[in-house]
Specification:
Blueprint lengths: L3 E5 L10 H9 L3 E3 L10 H6 L10 H13 L6 E5 L1 H11 L5 E5 L11 H11 L8 E2 L3 H8 L8 H8 L3 E2 H9 L16 E6 L7 H11 L6 E6 L12 H15 L10
Parallel strand pairs: 1-2, 1-3, 3-4, 4-7, 7-8
Antiparallel strand pairs: 5-6
Length: about 270
């Protein structure tokens, strides 16, 4: 069994969003890596005040390539766990034969899968500006509380927004819409690691219906594919109360179902 876990964050968050999961998994004896997307490095408070313009250069393809290079340099193949856009990137990394198990939590729109209305509405703050693909985009606190973290107690919204939310690259959204993101996924893959998809019944960003649609595609792969819908969870499931159960469920599944062998350097 591998003792390495790689966590992949989504849009509007950076590696700090994994601080609780990282500590929990490290306490179980794992080496836990939570790299930032290129350009997302730094403290969220500072990044909100001074957005990093370098983000405009990185879309899905560049981000997935960045993670692939990190994985191939590891001494052993990791468990891959990603949230939101990170859940899409984990699917791409698994499609490249990387990792011993993959967990995609509330995966964002994935190439080849339709986007439901709630998902489209949640993308409007970015896609309603036709020039946002060349910009660094900020999320409003109102949007965060109403749609992104609608499962978070109201008295915690301000603190979580300040601690965790960062600007994101409009390019991530537009590349996903106009150029297929990081490319197609081989749904019939013979090399993909076992995969768990976790969706949230209260998710307004990446609705459970979309997670179910992704599952129906991914289950055509040769390896095990399973689906878990957590009916009372929002898109902010990795940080809202009860995150511990989600973290433990994801890891227990990966421990049970990971494949043997070193796939970190898969061709």
């Amino acid at each position: 069994m591998t003792k390495t876990i790689l966590l992949v964050h989504g849009a509007w968050l950076n590696s700090k969003s994994w601080e609780l999961w990282k500590a929990r998994y490290e306490a179980k004896g794992y080496t836990v890596l939570a790299p930032d997307w290129p350009g997302d490095e730094g403290d969220p408070v500072e990044l909100k005040a001074h957005p990093n313009k370098a983000l405009t250069h990185f879309g899905p393809k560049e981000i997935v390539d960045h993670y692939e290079n990190l994985i191939r340099a590891l001494p052993e193949a990791p468990i891959l766990i990603g949230h939101s856009a990170g859940g899409v990137f984990v699917q791409h990394l698994a499609d490249r034969g990387l990792g011993v198990a993959a967990v995609a939590i509330d995966p964002a729109p994935t190439p080849g899968v339709g986007i439901p209305l709630d998902g489209l509405l949640s993308a409007l703050p970015v896609l309603s500006d036709p020039f946002s693909g060349a910009k660094v985009v900020s999320m409003s606190k109102d949007f965060f509380g109403a749609r992104f973290a609608n499962g978070l107690p109201r008295d915690q919204v301000d603190a979580h927004f300040e601690r965790y939310i960062v600007p994101t690259a409009g390019k991530v959204y537009w590349d996903g819409v106009t150029s297929g993101g990081a490319g197609p996924i081989d749904w019939d893959s013979k090399i993909r690691a076992p995969m768990l998809l976790i969706g949230g019944g209260k998710d307004l960003i990446a609705p459970a219906s979309m997670t179910e649609a992704i599952f129906k595609k991914q289950k055509h792969a040769a390896s095990l594919t399973e689906l878990k819908i957590l009916e009372d969870r929002s898109h902010y499931t990795c940080l809202e109360p009860g995150w511990e159960e989600v973290a433990d469920f994801a890891l227990a599944w990966a421990e049970k179902n990971q494949r043997a062998g070193d796939f970190a350097k898969a061709a």
